[in-house]
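Please complete every field before forwarding. Incomplete forms are returned to the sender.

SECTION A: IDENTIFIERS
Entry label: holo-342
Bound molecule: zinc ion
Molecule representation: SMILES string

SECTION B: INPUTS
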Amino acid sequence: MSIFVWRLLSNRVHVDTKLQWRKIELASKCYCCPTTPGIESLQHLFVNGVGAARVWSFFDQWFAGGSYPLKPKDTIPERLEGWAKRTNQQKKTHMSRITPCLIVWFLWAERNRCRHNEADFRPQNVIWQTQLHIKKLIDSGQLGTNQRRGVVSPLTIVPALSERRQAQLVMPLKWHPPDPPWIKLNTASWLSEGSGQARGGGIIRDHYGQLLCAFSVPLLVASSLEASAKTVRIGLSEAKELGTQIWIETNDPRVASLVKTRSFGPADSRHEMARLFLLQKGCSTRITSIGSVLNKAAKCLAKLQCDPTEHCRFNSHTAPRIVKAIVRLEQMGVPYLREEDE
Ligand SMILES: [Zn+2]
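SECTION C: PREDICTED COMPLEX
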């Protein structure tokens, strides 16, 4: 990390403008501004781009009362030196010197994550990682009270981290293919409370992640639980045509738990659950539930724009384009990012 900061101060970090200056043809577009991307310069990425500005102003609160205000025109060395002097502490290992280095380091890490994963830049990620690193330094005794003198009690912010972690940490998630000879069935369903209209979708893939069969069917159901159970049951009967070891992944944790405990559940699901248990005979199954991010293909099928009474069945050639695209991405192991509010 110190090497990185040194490279940054000596203008040796390869952002787009730097590469352009070296006559490498490149259309520069920053990753840190979601609505109006700017040209990615060192100044933009590390000081005054939307992402950087948010991160600096967050940590600015920790050093409230410091003599050095945030100025958008700060150069990077000015920013680092200014912050180092904020609390008038001489120690080289004081938090006022460490924090800005961590900020630029994690800004750079976030920028690279976005560039390589085609992901959105999240200032919150940078803030979170910087806080976590500081917390680690404190926990391991490398950042004692002397080195935190003059800092407006970051500890009131840091301990809250574990609770905030779940909501704020953006984790890459991947759809996992089954191990051979298993096949995997993903199902999703929805029920409109207003119209009572419901539809279920499912997709069956092999261990290469290749689409074997997909379906989208109207459901006559009284509850969302029944809709989920019915979709799993329809999917399982399709899957049994294709294999005998079937991994079921449903959008509904209630169905997964009913299957695991072999219970029929409330009145509205009893009938479907009984049929599902009968179908399980003659094949091996396992069942898990999954959040909607990793169940995109099944969700698209359940939400398919078509005649509401139409039963649709697809193979790898006839599947809707969006489903084929999702299958291809998941086959390549491209990760998704969990939305912050999920
Ligand atoms: Zn930007």
